[in-house]
């Protein structure tokens, strides 16, 4: 036998044995780390969280919800969060699982930091967050983000007319990039125009900052318009399968005829009979500028909703260091939680007098998007609403003042 081949075989055996010993050393030495065995005595859940229940203001700051809201949420989620006991360790109870998940969402702290505070394993915290976010979405979506009905669309349109003076509007639409850690082996799919890696939250919001529908998981490299076209919401509106009410007359303007119910959006989206964007161009007539102001005033609700989402759940202030699938679950959970918490907010969040609620983005020049040829029907819908907004029936006393102020800037 060749001595060189024999030495190669010996080397392979040696490397194999070294790898085997390394794997054995990495094996779990115990089911529960000695530090974590003191969870009941020193863990954050068993000490601080229980004390916070006596101080409701501090509790709400800590978890972004009141004690009553936490208890009600726990009652809904407990069956899906409960784990069976095994022979090696006690399961983490549903209340502590919910506390860990909400603490992660409200702070954005790393799994390592939360694991140290709650005396849990890092992988245990990661699993709790993943499973609890999924349970939040599955258990709450039917009651707090149901599939819209014709009655819901009409109620939404009524609220847009009452609060933001935009008739026949069934929602404000926009996309938000959620920054994530670059996923492996995905190339430039998640790389966006801002130079970061992201997934896109596409949201339709009502007049009171509730999420009516969300589409999560679009690649950061895709445009908002492209994501909308491929979403269930976009396909449903295009096909007419979402039970949107038939066209109706505008208030006190029967001479303009029936007008379709519409979604308002910015220039990133295409013009459709059911989807309106501002007039493009630099040198617009007075009535077109009034329309852009009125549309922008209604559309800014979705931007405000994103702001509320980010301020309440500080996890969005940091890069999500999870895989895209878990990021999707986190985003959906926070959106549904915003709807869950909304009634207790007492309508807070407007914070601006109606006559002074100005969106200045209508002043910026809006350029045409190549490859986006609006249909004649869509243009007619926009022109009809433009006429309404400058007519005695639909004009607002302050709209010209805001437009003129914009012209002077």
Instruction: Give the overall average pLDDT.
Output: 85
Query: Largest beta sheet, briefly?
Result: 5 strands, mixed
Whole-number tally of structural domains: 2
Helix content: 40-55%
Order of H and E elements: HHHHHHHHHEEEHHEEHHHH
Poorly predicted runs of 5 or more residues: 344-372
Strands ordered across the widest β-sheet: 3-2-1-4-5
Radius of gyration: 27 Å
Structural class: alpha/beta
Description:
With 409 residues, this protein is an alpha/beta fold. It folds into 2 domains: 36-144, no CATH class; 150-360 and 372-408, no CATH class. The chain has 15 helices and 5 strands. It has a 5-stranded mixed sheet, sandwiched between helices. A hairpin with a 5-residue loop joins strand 2 (198-205) and strand 3 (211-219). Helix 6 crosses helix 8 (122-144). The termini are far apart.
Task: Please sum up the structure shown.
With 409 residues, this protein is of the alpha/beta class.
Give the topology, please.
Layout (H helix, E strand, L loop, with lengths): L2 H24 L12 H4 L2 H8 L3 H8 L3 H15 L12 H14 L3 H8 L3 H23 L5 H15 L4 E11 L18 E8 L5 E9 L4 H7 L1 H8 L22 E3 L10 E2 L9 H27 L11 H18 L34 H14 L9 H10 L1
Parallel strand pairs: 1-4, 4-5
Antiparallel strand pairs: 1-2, 2-3
Features:
single chain, 409 residues, alpha/beta, 2 domains, 5-stranded mixed β-sheet, 50% helix, elongated
């Amino acid at each position: 036998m060749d001595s060189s081949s024999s030495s190669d075989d010996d080397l392979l055996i040696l490397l194999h044995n070294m790898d085997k010993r390394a794997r054995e050393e990495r094996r779990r030495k115990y089911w529960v780390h000695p530090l974590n065995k003191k969870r009941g005595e020193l863990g954050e859940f068993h000490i601080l969280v229980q004390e916070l229940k006596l101080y409701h203001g501090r509790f709400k700051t800590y978890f972004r919800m009141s004690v009553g809201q936490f208890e009600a949420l726990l009652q809904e989620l407990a069956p899906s969060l409960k784990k069976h006991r095994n022979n090696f360790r006690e399961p983490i109870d549903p209340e502590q699982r919910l506390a860990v998940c909400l603490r992660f969402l409200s702070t954005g702290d790393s799994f390592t930091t939360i694991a140290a505070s709650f005396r849990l394993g890092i992988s245990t915290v990661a699993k709790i967050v993943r499973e609890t976010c999924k349970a939040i979405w599955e258990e709450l979506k039917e009651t707090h983000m149901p599939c819209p009905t014709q009655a819901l669309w009409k109620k939404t349109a009524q609220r847009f007319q009452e609060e933001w003076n935009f008739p026949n509007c069934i929602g404000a639409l926009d996309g938000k990039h959620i920054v994530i850690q670059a996923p492996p082996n995905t190339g430039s799919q998640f790389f966006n125009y801002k130079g970061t890696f992201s997934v896109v939250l596409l949201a339709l919001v009502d007049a009171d900052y509730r999420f009516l529908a969300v589409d999560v998981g679009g690649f950061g490299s895709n445009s908002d318009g492209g994501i909308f076209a491929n979403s269930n919401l976009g396909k449903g509106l295009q096909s007419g399968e979402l039970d949107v009410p038939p066209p109706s007359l505008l208030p006190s303007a029967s001479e303009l005829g029936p007008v379709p119910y519409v979604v308002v959006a910015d220039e990133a989206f295409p013009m459709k009979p059911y989807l309106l964007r501002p007039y493009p161009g630099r040198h617009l007539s007075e009535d077109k500028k009034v329309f852009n102001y009125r549309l922008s005033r209604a559309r800014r609700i979705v931007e405000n909703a994103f702001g509320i989402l980010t301020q309440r759940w500080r996890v969005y202030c940091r890069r999500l260091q999870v895989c895209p699938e878990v990021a999707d679950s986190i985003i959906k959970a926070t959106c549904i939680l915003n709807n869950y918490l909304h009634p207790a907010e007492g309508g807070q969040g407007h914070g601006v007098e109606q006559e002074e609620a100005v969106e200045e983005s209508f002043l910026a020049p809006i350029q045409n998007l190549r490859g986006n040829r609006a249909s004649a029907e869509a243009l007619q819908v926009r022109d009809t609403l433009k006429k309404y907004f400058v007519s005695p029936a639909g004009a607002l006393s302050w709209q010209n003042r805001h437009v003129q102020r914009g012209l002077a800037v």
